[in-house]
Amino acid sequence: MSENLISKAAEILKLNDLGHYTVPTHGLYPFQWNWDSCLTALAQVYFDEARAWVEIETLFAHQWDDGMVPHIIFHKMDDGYFPGPDVWSTGRDVPTSGITQPPVAGFAIRQIFSRSKDRDAASERARALLPKVLKWHEWFYRCRDPRDSGLAAIIHPWETGRDNSVDWDAPFERVPTDGVLPFVRRDTQHANPAHRPTQAQYERYIWLVQKFRSLNWNNELLHDASPFQMVDPGFNAILLRSIQETAELAEELGEHDIAAASKAQLEKGLAALETLWNDDIGQYTCYDRVMGELSSIPSVGGILAAFAPIKSERAAQIAGRISAMKDYSTYAVPSHDPKDAEYDGERYWRGPVWLIVNYMIANGLARAGQSDVANVIENDSLTLIEKSGFAEYYDPITGAPCGGGQFTWTAAMVIEFIKQSKAVA
Ligand code: GLC
Asked: Mutate which of 26, 33, 73 to test ligand 1's pocket (most atoms within 8 Å of Cβ)?
């Protein structure tokens, strides 16, 4: 049975593979997306090691001079997606967007390295990537933490990858919509509009893009100029886990300066992450840097923090929180607590289950000794695939497939779940 799932998943990876990068799915997302690629490479390595390295190398070939690795690379034109390169206008030879995405590359590189059988090639390729990864991590603390708090902020919801989470509703009230040029959305032509962000949210996404473009994408200015500066625990946890893996890999390869710099970032970042713990709801929550307030919104951003090497007491509390939600949702882990008034089981990041998020939470919990809950997450993830196919996301109560179909990173996570649990067994 699991062999059958693996071969179906591998077919999807192949279908979406354009040779040196993979699209998330044809139609809805026809370019290279940053964290999609990194998580996809985790599965590619089982079939073709060289191909997995290429996925990451292609991404880093488009790193900006300041260190940022953009969230989309527009390798070739396709007008089925909005906002395209003309809206971003970042002035690059191969156009890219002007914002970033969760930095899971450091984690992915370490995994690919450890799984590679061609040790010489793996060392050489990892060694070439390490300074670039460090440069990206440094960029976060320089440009997205100008007051040196130890936590990186995001300045656009798309940077967290949780585009329309309830977490962004209140700060979005501060984002105006005047001056937004008329546009035609494409996402609602590829997917059910009831599963997608609203028009009011889209106008604010575009206002922010226009604002940053007016500042020539100068990252020394954007953070302070943005009315939207949110510190997301999940995003910072991904950064910290990648930093940890970078430190360990660098050590293994004798790159001691990179290892030392990464260890210092890790220590500071982990202490700062603790300031986002919210005892009232038993998980981490977002911090609104403009207002100076810790939010009380029960989204999966604060549960995803389990991906970082947090204290075992915290991992246990998060495992408890997931178990509690399981009592009133069929499938772990909803992207928003179904008991909250803002929950919407089919709309993008306002309730549905996403396999990539499940994978990262389960991975962190298993490392922290919370294997029971990690196993529940894995079982639920695979049950969803058997029931509803390789969708973009799933309703946590009914298990219905939502958003786009034949989704690359969903397929990659299926392969990863099955292969990793065999590795442990
Ligand atoms: C959506 C998701 C984002 C993802 C992208 C491509 O924008 O919210 O996380 O990277 O689609 O799959």
From this structure: 33
In 274-354, which residue ranges form alpha helices assigned H by DSSP?
312-326
Cα 381 to Cα 397: distance, rounded to the nearest angstrom: 13
Task: State in Å: Cα 161 to ligand 1 middle.
Answer: 6
Buried/exposed 156-169: b ≥16 CB within 10 Å, e otherwise? bbbbbbbbbbbbbe
Which of 129, 99, 103, 104 shows the shortest CA–CA distance to 116?
A: 129
Q: Please report, in tens digits, the pLDDT of each residue of the chain (425 residues total).
A: 688 999 999 999 999 999 999 999 999 999 999 999 999 999 999 999 999 999 999 999 999 999 999 999 999 999 999 999 999 999 999 999 999 999 999 999 999 999 999 999 999 999 999 999 999 999 999 999 999 999 999 999 999 999 999 999 999 999 999 999 999 999 999 989 999 999 999 999 999 999 999 999 999 999 999 999 999 999 999 999 999 999 999 999 999 999 999 999 999 999 999 999 999 999 999 999 999 999 999 999 999 999 999 999 999 999 999 999 999 999 999 999 999 999 999 999 999 999 999 999 999 999 999 999 999 999 999 999 999 999 999 999 999 999 999 999 999 999 999 999 877 65
356 and 39 Cβ atoms separated by less than 8 Å: yes
Domains in the chain: ranges and CATH: 2-311 (1.50.10.10)
Catalytic positions are: 163, 392
Does the C-beta of 163 come closer than 6 Å to ligand 1?
yes
Question: Ligand 1: distance of its center to the CA of 235 in Å?
Answer: 14
Residue 157 beta carbon below 6 angstroms from any ligand 1 atom = no
Mutation to probe ligand 1, out of 13, 36, 81 (largest number of atoms < 8 A from CB): 36
From the CA of 120, how far away is ligand 1's center (Å)? 34
